[in-house]
Batch of 2 targets.
Target 1
Amino acid sequence: MKIIGIIPARYASTRFPGKPLADLGGESMIERVYKQAKKSKALSKVVVATEHKLIFDHVINFGGEACMTAEHHPSGTDRCYEALTLQKENFDYAINIQGDEPFIEPGQIDLLASHLDGQTQLATLIKKIDTLDQLHSNSEVKVTFNTRNEALYFSRAIIPYLQKVAEKDWLKTYDFYKHVGMYAYRSDILKAITQLEISPLEKVESLEQLRWMENGYTITVAKTDIETMCVDTPEELEMAKIYLKHQQEQKKSIDSGKS
């Protein structure tokens, strides 16, 4: 399979304007994401898709590949499709890599890619929920799936509801999963889903993947054990800086132990 990794990077973020260019330990957030994606063994190409020339120029300056896309796209999926149409090569699949996850592991991309066999329409990652705080958070999207690892439903609510179990024992009784927002699209399916009207379930849950499911498309889920860190606000950027510093100190400690 020939797979392209596309990183949507929008300058005009409501909660954090200019977020892709934010400095994180001497490198921009988008540069960190790009470099991590380039380490993936499964991707034939990685490109940043942006609506802003500052981001485009920045990516080119650090040696990356980028393309200019329209300003009006309602989602990263739509931006990914335009970016795919701008490529001179043909790709079997496109993987949408979140531009605000600077610590993304290349292995997560490779894991998702391992489920792309030409028959898979859409695929995404999920992770087991470890805490009750995660389970109750409306920002953590929960997912249920069938025995073929195909998503049955995504929700901001807790799914499933354990009717005869005390809430404090839910995580001991059942394995709940949350959605990790990296998508793989077969190229023809990506074109098709961007033509769909907003669906009732998508509207009430504010989750675009429900539109695809309501229209009969199948989403394969792949389980990852790796926790991700999404940076949506300036406050979360400060948390990311602390995490990066901790990572760097750990590496120094390991390296000094080897010498």
Note: The domain at 3-251 is CATH 3.90.550.10 (Spore Coat Polysaccharide Biosynthesis Protein SpsA; Chain A).
Target 2
Amino acid sequence: MANIRRRAGKFQVQIRKKGYPPAVKTFTKFLDAKQWLTETEHRIASGRRPEQLCADIQFEQLLDRYIQTHIPKLKAPKQELSLTKRVSDRLGRYPCSALTNATLATYRDHRSSEVAPQTVKHEINLVRRVIKLAIAEWGLGIAEVPYVRLPRLPSGRERRLEPEEINALLLCLGDQMRDIVSFALETAMRRSEILGVARGDFDAQNKTVTLKDTKNGRSRTIPLSCTALEILNRRTQDGTIFTMQPDSVSQALRRGCGKLQIKDYRFHDLRHEAISRLFERGLSVPQVAMISGHQDYRMLARYVHLHRFEL
């Protein structure tokens, strides 16, 4: 399968054939694009691989190929697509050969003055990930993946609500949103994990819920408190569990916090709160890690801010 399409005033050629890596190249003239398409198809038909990607190919062409071939396979394509487009806007016009260690260092320093360190880290890692993929699988003709020291991440967020704030927040939320927030506080589950719970994941007899689709790709089983068990029992009897969309959940929490003048609080902070509560109840680090799904205890420590702990 091959096609030529207009893109930003240029002509992009895409060739796909089973057993060969996708071939993509952009030209300013249609005749040049058509000639390259014909020559590349002839090379493939004769059993040869498409020509190597030139080191001076624009980085945005690699990003386009990454969007087409890899992002659809990801568990969270929306976030990765947004990240890829953000990087393309800033580095897409660079030839791949110009994305050196020094270039990325300059980019890191400039972006660090605009956005949070974690955002800079994600953007640079995407650049390195795509170039590494292009060298290994697409025949990009450069010697190595650029390397740059990543910005140091700040310590974990310390925002915790007082019990009276949480009670007031729950009172001003709708029925389903109130259940979602309460369930998050009882289980330390992520927003996507909560909304993805199906009736088949819930074991009422053993008082557990099994998460099959997690951020790190590993399933885990979470014990349910009496409150969490009551929520699932009640919502399962209604024939559904949680039906809200992720963005709607975040917006509802934001509106609730706005009514109560609670500033700088996000849905993910409920996970911080829940994990801290688990430690306050006396659970060990391995026990909490099994519930939260953390594989690195150092990352788990970023979540923990105790209000009270009795020895």
Note: The chain is about 50% helix and 10% strand.
